[in-house]
Amino acid sequence: MDMAFQSVVTPQSPRIMAERPVRIDAKDVNIYYGEKHAIKNLTIAIPDRAVSAFIGPSGCGKSTFLRAINRMNDTIPSCRMTGDILLDGDSIYDASLDVVQLRARIGMVFQKPNPFPKSIYENVAYGPRIHGTAGSKAELDGIVEKSLRRAALWDEVKDRLDQTGTGLSGGQQQRLCIARAIAVNPEVILMDEPCSALDPIATAKVEELIDELKKNYCIVIVTHSMQQAARVSQLTAFFHLGTLVEFGDTDEMFTAPQDKRTQDYITGRFG
Amino acid sequence: MTELSKKSDGGLIARRYASEKRFRMYGVFALSLTTVFLAVLLADIVWRSLPAFTQYHAVLNVMVDPSKVEASNPAAGDFEGIVKDAWRGQFPSVQSRADRRLLTSLLSNAAGGELRRRVIADPSLIGKDVTVPLLLSDDADLFLKGLSTGVERSDGKGPLQIRSDGENFFLSGQGLNPGQIVLADGGAFKIAPEGDASPAEVIVAPGSTAEVGEGKWQLLTFDAAQDTRKIGDREAVWLEMLREKGIMKREIAWNFFLNGDSREAEQAGILGSILGSLMVVFVTVAVSLPIGVAAAIYLEEFAPKNRLTEIIEVNINNLAAVPSIIFGLLGLAVFLGFFGMPRSVPLVGGLVIALMSLPTIIIASRAAVRAVPPSIREAALGVGASKQQAVFHHVLPLAMPGIMTGTILAVASAIGETAPLLLIGMVAFIVDIPTGFLDTATVLPVQIYLWSDLPEKAFEARTAAAIVVLLLIMLILNAFAIYLRKKFERRW
């Protein structure tokens, strides 16, 4: 192992961890894109029923690590990984684990709203349908309504469920994507810069929704906006050049960062 | 404004605009040139094809002779004999063997076809008079359409004397030149080459020998000399006289659309080759679409990116550039030689063209699959869809318009393909209309090629007409492609 990686600050044990069980436990994760070493020796424990925000400058590896949590990186041929990530104590990289089942347990919301070019109803119903969750049409209707209500979208779209999802506004599309992720009843929701393509009003709505969802889910959000991290998260992890520099309670991170690099980043000296 | 325009830029902006203007002019020039070429080509073909869409018939009153058609078996009746008798009956004075044969040659050898059809449909017509159109020969048809020679008709000046010495006729009147045709008193003569002092050639005997007053006789002149056309003066005069009687009717040439190929131009049609083409296209689509789309999806979505798949990709691209005749050789060697399939059948033709279209379809389908944004795949994978579900539920529907467009364009070019079919024997002269994929058949472009080679002038128009039909079929296919694309297109 390269000596440079050994000098990474060991993540603190945040106060909030004491109150909640650990949901995602990553140990010594290294991720490579071909020759590029994208994530270096990352170890982190993410608690349940809280919002953990990953911040850091572009190219620091926060999205790469996020995509490792639901094995989305598997779709990139040049990407390989060492180390292990546990979900509720079980390795998600275990050979016996079905990656399709895993992705049903770990939902994902992407940077750009990407509803299917189908009706609003079909967008939400797609997941339950392929997993065979709903036994009947009525049950499926129920899941769709519940998911849309949880995504705070029901009142806006209940009269036009058969219209295409791509016809909604950007903020509505992103909430539709969240509803789609919720519909398969995941344990964890990963959000990759979910508000970067949205205007401030839509952003506020999605943030409100994230705040609501954290009561039931383990949420991990990658964001470029430190204000957003400060607003929605209980825990913040700062990534820099592929290493996890600091991980701790959001309030502490933004008031008294432990590492010089964190301080420089959140005060806007680079990034 | 003035501040900006006054600023010295060394003419850079002016040059930029001039360059853009020049480029636009090149574009307009190129576009107009293409349009003119296309318009000239299309207009020429359509103009040439027009005569083939109509056909002259002689509408005659025919007595269905019970001695020639038995009521018990009307299909075996001698309908050609019946119509020939009726035809000759138009000119009772034409008696010599050679003349009778010449007169009969103006009818198609299938002239009785319509009568046969009617009598078989309704045997009670036997023994009755039936008014029926008789198909004329291609030469007669061309003459009546004015395509073999122009005809000038002028009233004779002054009286015309017709004298007969019992054997020969002598004509005297004003303006009678050697070789000229004179129509008078129901008869027709040709002035001898030596002049009107020699006996005139009788084409149709006159009703009497008497003086014919001014305005009651006419002179006929043909623009083209007799030896430059297939219709001689005698036949031309008979046809002119019948036209004057009003029994020549120009109708839509249903033969052209409803018959198979024939050596006789007036009976040759394109139905056989259209059906052959449709069968070939059906086999092509049925074979190449599923294989091509499956190969494209596998290569694009599932195949590992390694040396082997790279080699396969490069070779697919190379195959798209292989001359079609090579595919014909391949079909000959593999389908006919190795598998022992029959020659000249649409099944083999379709398989060969399917092989030829595959690279195009694969390339087009891959491009269409690649054009689907990755976010859709990620969205599907993100809710726990398997790779296959993501591809079949989301990627494929979005790629469908592109796949359809590529496929139909490949098929449209395949429908015009001739070379590979030559090698598997679909170039034969086939009269029968194919009824199945294992019947011998030919296809439209091959039919065009075959007809373009024939010396008869009537086939010239038929060739052009077959080209027009081929173009129409392609137009329909392209319209269908656009319709499919619009239908499958979704907004995202």
List the helices and strands and how they pair.
The complex is a heterodimer of chains A (271) and B (492).
Chain A lengths: L2 H4 L15 E12 L2 E12 L3 E5 L6 H8 L9 E9 L2 E2 L7 H7 E4 L10 H12 L5 H14 L3 H4 L12 H14 L4 E5 L7 H14 L4 E5 L3 H7 L2 E6 L2 E7 H6 L4 H7 L5
Parallel strand pairs in A: 3-8, 3-9, 6-7, 7-8
Antiparallel strand pairs in A: 1-2, 1-4, 4-5, 9-10
Helix pairs in contact in A: 4-5, 4-7, 5-7, 7-8
Chain B lengths: L1 H5 L5 H38 L4 E10 L15 H10 L8 H8 L8 H9 L7 E7 L2 H7 L6 E5 L4 E5 L4 E4 L8 E4 L2 E4 L10 E4 L6 E2 L4 E6 L10 H13 L2 E5 L1 H5 L12 H32 L4 H13 L4 H15 L7 H25 L3 H9 L4 H29 L3 H5 L20 H9 L4 H32 L4
Antiparallel strand pairs in B: 1-2, 1-11, 3-10, 4-5, 4-9, 6-7, 6-10, 7-8
Helix pairs in contact in B: 2-17, 9-12, 9-14, 9-16, 10-12, 11-12, 12-14, 13-14, 14-17, 16-17
Quick rundown:
The complex is a heterodimer of chains A (271) and B (492). With 271 residues, chain A is α/β, with parallel strands linked by helices.
Architecture overview:
The complex is a heterodimer of chains A (271) and B (492). Chain A has 271 residues and is of the alpha/beta class. Chain A has 11 helices and 10 strands. Chain A has one domain (12-266): P-loop containing nucleotide triphosphate hydrolases (Rossmann fold). Chain A has helices at residues 3-6, 62-69, 99-105, 120-131, 137-150, 154-157, 170-183, 200-213, 226-232, 250-255, 260-266, and strands at residues 22-33, 36-47, 51-55, 79-87, 90-91, 106-109, 188-192, 218-222, 235-240, 243-249. In chain A, strand 9 (235-240) and strand 10 (243-249) form a beta hairpin. By secondary structure, chain B is α+β, with helices and mostly antiparallel strands. Chain B is 54% helix and 11% strand. Chain B is elongated and about 110 Å long. Chain B starts with a helix and ends with a helix. At the A-B interface, helix 3, strand 6, helix 4 and helix 7 of A face helix 13 and helix 14 of B.
